[in-house]
Amino acid sequence: MSIISSILTQASFSSSDLVKLLGSEGDEMMLLFETSNKIKQNITGNKVYFRGLIEFTNFCIKDCLYCGIRKSNHSIQRYNLSDEQILDAVRFAEEENFASIVLQSGENTSSTFTERITHLITRIKDQSQGRMRITLSLGEQSESVYRQWHEAGAHRYLLRIETTNHTLYQKIHPKNSLHDFNHRLDCLYSLRSVGYQTGTGVMIGLPFQTIDDLANDLLFFQKFGIDMVGMGPYLEHSQTPLFKFRNELMTVQKRFELSLKMIAVLRILMNDINIAATTALQAIDPMGREKGIKAGANVIMPNITPGPHRKDYLLYESKPCPDEEAIQCKGCLDARIAMVDAIGGYGEWGDSKHFQNRTISE
Ligand code: SF4
Predict the structure, then answer these.
(1) Ligand 1 contact via 62 beta carbon (within 6 Å)
(2) What pTM, to 2 d.p., does this model score?
(3) Which end of the chain is more exposed for a tag (fewer CB within 10 A), N or C?
(4) What's the pLDDT at 261?
(5) Is 356 left (phi over 0), alpha (psi -120 to 50) or beta?
(6) Which domain holds residue 286?
(7) Residue 56 exposed, middle or buried by CB count within 10 Å (0-12, 13-18, 19+)
């Protein structure tokens, strides 16, 4: 029996086991994917759940060194959708039978912004007669704001930690109180204590990142008891400070493959969580999201931001479909789902089973 197949029979995994799984190649890598896919089919089933992604504004108060919409990038067109445009996108999601949407934006902690979101959540709930599940991806906020939004009707929150290596975190963010690793961690704990299905994620293939870092990221997800994960390859953006390290990165193909292995290992480590096949996978390979599903992911976030603004929300370059209208992307989505051994979970919330299991046992 090979080392990989032997590790795959274990019930628990050390950091060194995870490093070996992430280093698997060829037949052993295929065995890893087969194992993770089997676990997914047994535990979460063969459905892929949809979250219609609405990137409603690219204004951001922060300056993350890897991000194309960082505050200091003055060469992009800033936009802010009106409430009516957002509600139209939600209506579109309803028509397409997506039972969940994600409201995503750059970070903003002003009371004008936080109150606007509370009002929007209420309107989305009213418009959909409570049928639309709302996920928020609006960065670091105070616990009282998280609670206010939860009470208004948002039940899931995505806050990517990006890396759990404190030193690496500092290298990819400006050194100031607005970009504090411990505060980000505190926010994740606040989200969970408020009662959200809590999601996080990391970038894979960052400059200075090691395989041990990634193994530790996976162990962090497990120790925290995270409910949802969205992670994908780091893709550089030429108008960011981190771009100067582009020659030190592993190839894009390696980052892609490593991202699939991260999904697979995470599924083996945490059988019942929701894992998203992110758009960054599709940016590298036209079938990237589908390969992510085969590796163990069970969530897709089709972009339903009104077409004219999608090109302005480029966290990284080479983002797929920026010029297409949402309806055109829906056409490709159906065809893509049919190409993998999965069924679209239309009309279903597809809540994290891990969240359901942990809240029963808490
Ligand atoms: S990663 Fe998020 S918080 Fe950081 S600059 Fe980009 S949008 Fe803002």
Answers:
(1) yes
(2) 0.94
(3) C
(4) 98
(5) alpha
(6) 48-361
(7) buried
